[in-house]
Amino acid sequence: MIRIYATFQLLLVSLCISNVALAAPALPEWTHTRRNLILKWDLAADKATLAHSQKGAVMWQGSLLPSFWYENLRKEKKYSKAVVQSAVKEGDKLTVALQWPGLGKGRLVVENGETGWRFTELSAEWTAFTPKILEMYLGASMVNGANVHPTWDRPFMPDWQSFGYCVPGAKAGTVQSYFRSWDFGHTTIALGNFGPSMGTPYGAAFPRPVLFAGMGSDDGWITIGAGSVPDAAMSLKIQSTRGCLQFLYREDLWGPPKGKIRIWKDLARIAIDTTARESFGRYYASFPEVAKSNSGESLRKQTASIWNTWGMWRFKKYPIRPIADFMEKMHNEVMVLDDPWESSQGSGVPDLKKFPDFYEDIAYIRKKGVEVGVWETIGWIKDTAACGLGKKDLILDKNGKPCMANWNFDPQGDAYYCMDFSSERTKKFLWDRTVRIMKDIRPRVIKLDFGYGLPSPDMGAPRDPALRGERHTFALMQQIAKAAKSVDPGVVIMGYGISPLWVPLTDLVSLDDQGDLWFDLHRGHQEWSVWASLLGGYGVAISGSSCYDWALDDGILLNSVILGSPGAVLPSEMAENAPVPRQFMNRRLAVNLWHRRTAQWEPRWYNSNTGNMQGPPELKCWGRLEGGGNLTALVLRELRPGEAQTGGNSVENISWTGKWALISQDNASIAKSGQVAVIPFAPGYISFFTQNRPTKIIRRNIDGEFAADQWTWADGKLTITVSEEEFRNTAGYLVHTQP
């Protein structure tokens, strides 16, 4: 691998992508630096490079000027790439005059800020005719001097070169985010809301949309992503090791917008850093933080522990009250009624045949002090006639027939019609349906699903060009969120996408039900947790969710301690109606009771790593920092020889055996907290500093509270020991250190 890597670095230094550029006066230098990295853009040649300033190694290179694959008036498909006519640099702003041969002229405005480059505006003025754009590209050029010609029916090719790529959750079953350049072959990786309909490897809800991709090597990474919600379907397109961003329009099928001038606001943002995760973090930092409510009550509801009925309903076991009775033992705060609670998908009306006591069941749940949530599709609709929708309100295919979709786009699978937000009647239906649900059921949470399951532009598109591409799902979700909050501003909108562009719409992001992680659940959940943590600074609560298997739950719960909000889609019984072991329920109870109630934080990795070209992300010991650096939650897994700071198991002056979670119950750090929860995830002991000698320690399990006696305090350190038998009968300990 070292030899391959070194050879690849030499190739990157020696190779360049040929671009046809018109003669132009001397153009200003455009650079951005971060740590030991420098990003340069030669405008005349349209060649950008990311290099290490000391080693000289080139981690990434390619072009950045936009190009179009379009259809002309004779229905011929043509390619035109922008060439620079002139460029003016004014401080941190660069204005580039462009020409697209055969199409027209335009300009690109680029800003160089603290977090990187921002393509704030791209404008095009068509001269002879308005082209029908099939695809727009960043990072594509004409093929010149190729030794190998892959199967590619275009006269141009992607030209971004790097040793590796990183796209969070690009592949599922099992999850993979890091790839060497030659691992992809010829691949489309949907970065937005279009999954299987784009021919991309299947991946369900989380983490779509991401709307960015990383490229580089272990010396440095570049992230290129959208700066605003694209009016096209956005993908990372890989062709024989080389990549580009593709924006799929297919205006040959659906027609272009009117007018000779076209403008793209905030087309792209570019960031660099030494790791892929930190490079992503710089991209996120280019977006302003969206203010979330700071009131304790609203945050409590935003970060609530959620139990989802899908754990039983996936087996077609629909009685609600037994699930509520079971859930009560673990003190969950919200019970979400999942699919299929509706009379038909998307109707917003309860199925009183399947649930004849629906409203009585909801009252039964609330009598337990538990709030209710509902599942809803973002764009699917089954019984259009019953919902008052007709052909003009739906996405149509190229033959003018209503376009249907499903989760995996199985041609013969059960499918649903797709609403077109271009229709005023669709807008009104979504608003009225949501308001009715809010007033009729009064949900605390609305779980929005299947935004990734809409037809791609190859299949169908909204009639209004301004609502096409990634904007369609955004518009649908925005309408639902606005309608819900018009009735109850405190309602929690739960989604799955981690794009910073979705932050204004989302109060709670869930890691889904882990079905896509398949047989490698713990590693996959660790990887997903690393990517979810990118939202930590934006006031969006994160639910760790669960898998379907109680025996694997503890590994997922450990990560949920740091993420914040525990969620579950677990069954309320084992195989053949056997009861769930109390040991499993105890761990859920502890995290439900004591999880963090705040939504803004940042991770501390300790001996964990966020992945690189040598391996995927791996979480071992990691923590949650809040309020300027207070360590409010900490997960401790067994260390390997040589990993500890001072020998043995030692992190933050804590020694332990087994696996543990510590959670501050106020906003102070664990060592200074007036109350700290201590949760064992295996038999063993833990010893850590506390501000004062504990005034009392409560042991908790599903049967209640008891005074704990298996602890000592000496030299400022509290030691708690848990035997095998005690572990099976203990949820956790609440340590009080204030009088």
Task: Offer a concise description of the structure.
It is built from 13 helices and 47 strands. It has 739 residues and is an alpha+beta fold.
Describe it for me?
It contains 13 helices and 47 strands. With 739 residues, the protein is of the alpha+beta class. The chain has 3 domains: 2-285, Beta-galactosidase, Chain A, domain 5, CATH 2.70.98; 296-510, Aldolase class I (TIM Barrel), CATH 3.20.20; 603-736, Immunoglobulin-like (Sandwich). The strands form 8 sheets. The chain has a 9-stranded antiparallel sheet with strand order 7-8-9-10-22-19-18-15-16. Strands 33-32-31-30-29-25-24-23-34 form a 9-stranded parallel sheet. An 8-stranded antiparallel sheet has the order 35-36-37-40-41-47-43-44, with helices on one face. Helix 9 (470-487) links the parallel strand 29 (445-449) and strand 30. Helix 8 (424-440) runs parallel beside helix 9.
Radius of gyration: 27 Å
Q: Enumerate the spans where pLDDT stays under 50 for 5 or more consecutive residues.
A: 1-24, 644-648
Put simply, the count of helices is: 13
CATH class of the largest domain: Mainly Beta
**Category by helix and strand content:** alpha+beta
Mean of the pLDDT scores? Answer: 92
| CATH A-level architecture of the largest domain | Distorted Sandwich
**Secondary structure tally: strands:** 47
Distance linking N and C termini? 59 Å
CATH topology of the largest domain: Beta-galactosidase, Chain A, domain 5
Portion in helices? 10-25%
Number of domains: 3
Largest sheet: 9 strands, antiparallel
Strand content: 25-35%
Going across the biggest sheet, name each strand in turn.
7-8-9-10-22-19-18-15-16
The shape is globular
InterPro entries: Aldolase_TIM, Alpha-glycosidase_related, GH
Organism: Dyadobacter soli
Signal peptide: 1-23
GO molecular function: alpha-galactosidase activity
